[in-house]
Amino acid sequence: MPAAGIEPVVLIAVLAAAALHAGWNAVIKARLEPILAMTLVVMAGGVVALPFLIRFGPPRAAAWPCIGGSTALHLAYYLVLAEAYRRGEMGQVYPIARGSAPLLTALASVTIVGESLAASALIGVVVLAGGILLLALHRPRRGEPRDAASIGFALATGVVIAGYTTVDGMGARIAGNPNAYASTLFVVDMLPLPLIVLARRGPEVFRSMRHYAGQGLLGGMMSLAAYWIAIWAMTRAPIAVVAALRETSVLFSALLATLVLKEAFAPLRGIAAVVILAGIVLIRWH
Question: Quick one: 133 exposed, middle or buried, by C-beta within 10 A (0-12, 13-18, 19+)?
């Protein structure tokens, strides 16, 4: 069982993973139709993971139910997140999805996994999640009303994130080797979404996607690295703590949304950043 605290190297690694996670989400929003961009990223991540699967081999048999459950949950994640991005701005969708997830993950890790959290760490998770959710309060650009459906899909994404995070935290520990678990998960995970897109759109859609292969490969590599780090970290620290720290990706996402995607900047983002940093401090030094 991981220690109750979090080592500095794990903290730094998870924060780096957060930056990578925001990067691949920007690829999803900025290129192609969201579901097609998501498919490119998933396929690229699986292909990049193949040599690692050969190197590390599959995990213990006891971990395979977790891989199966996680694959199903990830498929749901790709579909609802793509729909949320199709309907709303990254600057609003992303923090709602990622801000609700740590609270739900903390609940699951305590009730299902049986982890215990120090009071200050639990407060830190709540504070950090609150700062993330603050980022979702900005108004859409040009005074447009918020899309209720996009908010609903973003909240559904948060529920699914909590689900697969908890499952993968358990699976990586059961597997005995987080590298074997992560590489296997990415290879298995690359299959369902392309098959669904193929069934819905036909083979022509893949020919239209080839022009964005470079962006897809970049997004896939960032996605692979970001979640691989998180899986490893959940074998070294409580699942709830890793999940909360990983969601600091919203800070990087807010920067990308403003500078790259030209979405409206809200001064509230500065306040939210301070709150998020306060949460990190509480988590690290509990």
Answer: buried
